[in-house]
Amino acid sequence: MTTIAKDADVVTVVNVFTVEPENQQRLIDVLVRAAESVVSKMDGYVSANLHRSLDGTRVVNYAQWRSRDQLEAMLRSAEAQEHMQAAAALATNVEPHLYA
Question: Average pLDDT over the chain, rounded to whole?
C-alpha cells in the first residue's frame, strides 16, 4: 500500500502517459500485467498505483521504490523493458518524473 509522508524513506516515480482514449484501458492492462508479473517482484519495489483521467487521455503511474538504484536496476531489466516498450507503444507521450 502506498503511504505518502514527508519523512518516508522512498523515491517516487510519477509516470504520465498520454494516450488516445481508445488505448487508455489497454495501457492500464499492460501496466497492471507488468506490475503483477515482474515489477512487484524486484528488489526495492514498494508500491504502484494507476490513475486514469476522466477524459481518457492520460494514465498516471505513481510508484514508490526503496532507492533510486533499485528503481534504475528495474528499468535496466530485460523483463521490465519488454513491458515498458509495450506501454510506450500505446502512448503518444511518456513523461517520467522522479521525486525524493
Answer: 94
Answer whether residue 76 is part of any domain: yes
Is pTM beyond 0.85? Reply is yes
Residue 10 located in a structural domain = no
Structural domain contains residue 66: yes
Instruction: Match 499492460 to its residue by C-alpha cell.
Output: 30
What Cα–Cα distance (Å) separates residue 45 from each residue in 18, 48, 89? Answer: 24, 8, 24
Q: Name 15's bridge partners.
A: 61, 96
Helix (H) or strand (E) segment spanning residue 84: helix 78-90
Q: Give how many domains the chain has, as a whole number.
A: 1
Residue 8 lies in a domain: no
